[in-house]
Write a structure and sequence with these properties.
The complex is a heterodimer of chains A (about 500) and B (about 300).
Chain A: H1 14-26, E1 36-43, H2 47-58, E2 67-70, H3 75-79, E3 92-95, H4 97-105, E4 118-120, E5 122-127, E6 133-136, E7 151-155, H5 156-170, E8 173-176, E9 181-186, E10 199-203, E11 208-216, H6 223-228, E12 232-248, E13 260-266, E14 269-275, E15 280-287, H7 289-297, H8 300-312, H9 315-323, H10 328-337, E16 350-353, E17 359-368, E18 372-373, E19 376-378, E20 384-385, H11 393-413, H12 421-449, H13 456-469, H14 471-482
Parallel strand pairs in A: 1-2, 1-11, 2-8, 5-13, 11-19
Antiparallel strand pairs in A: 3-7, 4-7, 5-6, 9-10, 10-11, 12-15, 12-16, 12-17, 13-14, 14-15, 17-20, 18-19
Chain B: H1 2-6, H2 8-15, H3 17-22, H4 26-33, H5 60-68, H6 81-98, E1 116-121, H7 127-134, E2 138-144, H8 148-158, E3 169-172, E4 189-195, H9 204-212, E5 215-226, H10 230-243, H11 260-268, E6 278-285, E7 289-292, E8 301-307
Helix pairs in contact in B: 6-7
The chains are: A alpha+beta (about 500), B alpha/beta (about 300).
Chain lengths: ~500, ~300
């Protein structure tokens, strides 16, 4: 790309906007407000939306686009988010090295509170029914040059707060927060311009934003997706994800520098213990709605005992403990005595739960029929909702954003209108199949391991054990998980 | 290559008798009797259509063909989809031309790479003209087409993008012959583009001579067309139009295709006005789009750019 293209005036000429703004001021009293014209209007200030805007602002080719961000919450609060070093938010996500490197590339990674981000280098995944196990550790010499980090555990708020700081540093984004989207409609034709195919976002208070490209980063119930008439199909798992911030007996078996993520497949769903800095961990436990509400009602002592049981006791023992209204702690301590364990292959014992962090949310699978329409693009959860068992939800969103930002850069550099489907097609074709495959794999894994007995059970154990024995194949899987392997799609 | 081409006309006479007969250009009739080695005539032909008073490169059949396509010009899944997909490559090719070392004399002022002035000849619905006008490195785009029907579509479409307002993009219902030539050479255009046009004009040599006058010294004449080969007949005429129907029937007349070496010979014969042409061959891959393929300028669709040095 010729460097000359990377400079100069904004995509929507400033004078057009200014004249429209002048009209707006002039006609304010008559209540027919003229919409403000933007190249990109992003609805939703979560990780996907903020990453997209950061990527566009950080790239010299797209830096001159007029950009607006619409968010229902107070972003000043998010930006100034702060917790003491021994407290962690319960909403954490795993960031693959490829997501981290993208965040670094757009200048956001350094704005995260790095001492709150925990890398992990190993994974232990096992079948709760058969005990078959796959150990994701690096064989000598098998570790990739990029490092042995499989992923980084990070609080979602640390990411959004860091992205907001980076956006503030870059400047040039018109932020409309605490803003409710009243409706999205099409524009009008005047003597000079024909905006009948441009979406106009109407905010509470009367503000109107015309969008050359309207980005729906507005979550699973995306109003932008509804506006575009795009269906999201899928199903509910009849499972809830229970999250909590836990305090452990120590920093993990490998100490500060060798952290391990643990996941056990139980017939009710997978339970995962993911390392945070120090002796903290974050829990993600997919289970039945009944079990989830029981877990939330337990005392701290009984909750911790049930969590420890989830990684140690048999599914039958655990099932019984879920029926108890209280007294799990006593039940756990005597049952544990009769359970043989190799303590190195399970997480350390949880000794405390941070107050107010036990929460749950329903799990579902959704995939939008398409990610693009004329002047509309969907990213992140607005496009797809995945089972959390592989920790891929946020990373999929980052992958979307990276791809969409690339498509926009190409379109700007070649004089395309960034809102038309012709310009957005590369994004949809690059991401749809990749996301669909991952959604399918995680869905099948969930279903496969939800079976407690029958012919599937021994078969799936063969699968896990066989993978563990085959070194090269395992390295390949680990590299995939870390996002630095050969891309299969 | 040569020997197989000598056999070509007979085969094509049987394949496309109607299309050939419908076009009455004397120059073309001459070609039909000869093997398809097309020498670009250096003299301006006398105009053969009594209904039009002035000399023109424009062929009425071609105009009505493209006017009929006007309504679907901007449909991304319509008949112009291959053109939409090709458009980014046009910019890549122009960038390659502009960033190539200039072959003008050192005293010739060069175009300002951040304020380029474009003339798009045969702009159609404005696919290229709009995109050129959107580039931040563009000062102005003048786009001409002889079909008023198509210009109505082009203007209406440009109105949908506020960034194209304010005089940066101007559509004129003109032919290259009727367009006023700026008197001072420095006021002529930095980039004159003639995309997918020369295969639709009756007297390409005279047409290109006239177009060339609009290029300022140091500026570039950039065109794209299709080589006249067995492959191009098979792909652009038989497969694209007759079998797959991805290109509307009657869009291309194979006899009007011009080979890259014919264009090179044409520009070389102008007594040092033009530099050495650059070429880039592109191949359409269904389901993917256009792809640059080295050497394919000898076979099918290609771009050719030539700098005005004198």
């Amino acid at each position: 790309m010729n460097t000359a293209i990377r400079r100069r005036s904004a995509y929507v000429c400033r004078s057009c906007t200014q004249s429209l703004q002048r009209q707006l001021r002039r006609t304010y009293a008559s209540a027919t407000a003229q919409p403000d014209i933007y190249d990109v209007v992003c609805v939703g200030g979560g990780p996907a939306g903020l990453s997209l805007l950061t990527a566009l602002r950080a790239n010299p080719v797209t830096a001159h686009l007029r950009i607006a961000l619409v968010e229902a919450q107070d972003l000043a609060k998010t930006k100034s988010w702060k917790l003491p070093p021994n407290k962690f938010s319960n909403r954490c996500s795993s960031l693959t090295p490829s997501s981290a490197s993208f965040l670094d590339q757009i200048g956001a990674w350094s704005h995260l509170e790095r001492d709150r981000v925990q890398a992990y280098q190993e994974m232990q995944v096992w079948d709760g029914v058969t005990g078959a196990r796959i150990e994701f550790d690096w064989a000598p010499g098998a570790a990739p040059a990029a490092g042995t980090t499989i992923a980084y555990m990070n609080e979602n708020l640390n990411l959004t707060s860091g992205l907001l700081k980076r956006i503030e540093e870059l400047g040039g984004v018109s932020v409309f927060d605490n803003a409710k989207v009243e409706k999205i409609a099409y524009g009008e034709e005047t003597e000079d311009v024909d905006l009948r195919e441009w979406p106009v976002v109407h905010l509470s208070g009367g503000k109107q934003l015309s969008a050359r490209l309207l980005v729906g980063a507005d979550g699973a119930n995306s109003p932008v997706r509804s506006f575009a008439g795009i269906e999201a199909r899928g199903w509910d798992y009849n499972r809830h994800g229970v999250v909590a911030t836990l305090e452990m007996e120590g920093e993990g078996w490998g100490g500060e520098h060798l952290k391990t993520a643990y996941q056990r497949f139980l017939p009710t769903g997978p339970v995962a213990m993911l390392p945070l800095p120090g002796n903290h961990c974050t829990l993600v436990w997919s289970t039945t709605p009944t079990n989830a509400s029981r877990l939330k009602s337990l005392s701290a002592k009984d909750f911790i005992a049930t969590v420890n049981a989830a990684f140690r006791l048999s599914p039958t023992d655990l099932e019984y403990m879920h029926t108890q209204e209280s007294g799990q702690a006593e039940e756990y301590s005597w049952r544990l005595e009769h359970t043989p364990l190799d303590y190195r292959t399970i997480p350390q014992t949880a000794v405390g739960v941070q107050e107010g962090t036990v929460a749950s949310f329903p799990l579902k699978l959704r995939h939008a029929d398409t990610y693009i329409a004329e002047r509309v693009a969907l990213v992140g959860d607005a496009a797809h909702t995945i089972h959390p068992l592989a920790g891929q939800g946020l990373n999929q969103g980052q992958g979307d954003v990276q791809s969409l930002a690339k498509a926009i850069e190409y379109a700007v550099g070649h004089g395309q209108d960034i809102g038309v489907t012709m310009a957005l097609e590369p994004y949809a074709s690059e991401r749809y199949a990749a996301n669909h495959l991952l959604l399918g794999v995680c869905d099948k894994l969930h279903k496969l391991y939800s079976v407690g007995s029958g012919p599937l059970v021994p078969l799936r154990s063969v699968g896990l054990n066989a993978v563990n024995a085959l070194g090269p194949l395992k390295s390949f899987f680990m590299n995939q998980a870390a996002g630095n392997g050969i891309k299969v799609f | 290559m040569r020997s197989s081409l000598r056999h070509a006309p007979k085969a094509f006479r049987t394949a496309r008798p109607v299309a050939c007969g419908a076009i009455g250009a004397p120059w073309l009739q001459h070609t039909r009797r000869q093997p398809p080695s097309r020498k670009l005539s250096t003299t301006t032909p006398t105009y053969h259509n009594p209904s039009s008073p002035t000399s023109s490169s424009v062929n009425e059949t071609e105009i009505s063909h493209f006017s009929a396509l006007a309504s679907s010009w901007w449909d991304p899944h319509g008949p112009s989809r291959p053109l939409h997909l090709m458009n980014p490559l046009r910019h890549d090719f122009i960038q390659a031309c502009l960033s190539a070392p200039s072959t003008t004399s050192p005293t010739t002022p060069q175009p300002d790479p951040n304020a380029l002035r474009y003339l798009d000849v045969g702009c159609g619905g404005g696919i290229f003209a709009e995109s050129a006008a959107r580039l931040p490195t563009t000062a102005s785009v003048t786009a001409i087409d002889p079909s008023p029907t198509i210009l109505t579509v082009a203007r209406a479409h440009a109105k949908r993008d506020p960034s194209l307002g304010g005089g940066k993009l101007t559509y004129l219902s003109e032919t290259i012959e009727s367009l006023a030539l700026p008197a001072a050479p420095a006021d002529r255009f930095d980039v004159v583009s003639v995309f997918e046009v020369v295969e639709h004009v009756d007297y390409p040599a005279a047409f290109l001579d006239r177009v060339g006058e609009f290029v300022r010294p140091g500026g570039w004449l950039v065109l794209s067309t299709i080589a006249r080969t067995w492959t191009s007949w098979l792909t652009t005429n038989l497969v694209a139009e007759d079998i797959l129907g991805v290109v509307p029937k009657g869009t291309h007349d194979w006899y009007k295709y011009i080979n890259e070496e014919e264009l090179r010979a044409h520009f070389a014969g102008k007594g040092g006005v033009w530099g050495t042409p650059r070429a880039m061959g592109v191949v359409f891959v269904p389901g993917f789009g256009w792809k640059e393929v080295r050497g394919s300028e000898k076979i099918g669709n290609y771009f050719l750019g030539v700098q005005r040095v004198g």
